[in-house]
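name: query_chain
kind: protein
chains: 1
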Amino acid sequence: MMMMLEWSLSPHFVDVDQMTELVTAVTGSTERLSCSAVGRPAPRVVWYKDDVPLTVDSEQTDDVTNVDGRNLVKTTHQLVLGDLLPADSGRYRCTAHNAYGNVTFVYTLLVIGQILSNQSCAN
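structure:
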């Protein structure tokens, strides 16, 4: 009898060049924080704000991607933050984990007040 060996892979981020540690947004705007990871089994992503787990759903898409000659599921989670207020500023952490490990990325979001144009100030 021949046994097939299963292989595993701890999670790691892909598309890291699209992840920016410092995100600045204007009050009332919308920001999408993205966390794309691969692993086997497919990693689960959890979001935190200032180290408190977020219970909101994030948008998730799954695509098959080739990593080192192996087809893996790339899970992309986007945390969509709309109608931002200065109180939404803080540290947003995404952690991707499976049975073989975890990886973490931290965004710092700074929400600033509306920027007034020169025409607004002249009135």
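note: The chain has a mean pLDDT of 80.
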